[in-house]
Every structure is written in C-alpha cells, then in structure tokens.
Amino acid sequence: MAEENRKSLLTDILKRERLDKLLNKDKSQEIKKATNLVKSKESNIQSSSNSKDLQDRVNSSKANNTFEVAMNEALIDIRFYFLKEGEYSAKFRSLFLNNKNELDKYGIDARKFLDYSREAFDRYKKTKNMMPLDPMKPKAFEYVETNVKDLIKMLAQRFGK
Length: 161
Description:
161 residues, mainly alpha, single chain
C-alpha cells in the first residue's frame, strides 16, 4: 500500500514537472516571437530611409514596440489582469507614450512603468476596500494616471534633470 502511494506521488510529481516545463517553454517562445517581431519591424523601418521625419517615426515605433513587448510579458502574469480589460491597455499605452521622454530621463522602461501602474492600482483597491481581482474603473485609471504624473514630478524635483 505504501509503495503504491509512493509510485503515484512520483508520477504526479513527474507530470507536474513536465507541465511546468511545457508552460515555461511556451512562455519563452511567445516572448521570443514578440522580440523577433519588434526587431524585424525596426530593421524594416531603418532600412527604408534616413530622413528626420522617418527617424521620429522610428523612435515612436521603438517606444510603441518596447511597450508591446512589455505588455505581452505582463499579460502572462495574473497581477496585470486589468490590462486585458477593455480600452485600458490602449490608455496605458498612450499614457506611456505621452510621458516617454520624461520616463527615459529617469531610466523607467515600459516594464517598470507597468509595474508602477499595477502598484498604484493595488493602492487604489486597498483604499477603496475592493476585492483583489475587481475590474478597473475610470476613477481607478485616473488615480493611476495622477500617480504616474506625480512620480515624474517627484523625480524631476529629486534629480533636477
């Protein structure tokens, strides 16, 4: 009886490990596909022309692509469930792109921006006594937006760049 339990436990553990390996492999493949897509878009844009207008488009395209890669990575994580809801992913993208220059000055990339946004949303949920997976509402997005702007102001005061 004890030997059967050991065998069943061992097979269960091996099954779980195989499933974990498959999930990690799938995640890494999705991330590689996204980065390859970004790199191919960048190379296509850079090879077409070198005018200043095109360079501006490349920079905005790079910012958009880096945000897309960070968004794809974040969507795998359940903590970023609110990005899957409605128009909020587009709103976060526009918020990031609007503040891209200031965020770059202080070394905040798209992933850090999304982490900070998630933390701000978590603070909002705590203050309003919301459940952990409650959907984001417009007031919550306004709170996150003001927190991002306050972060940029505080960094500007602190480092004076």
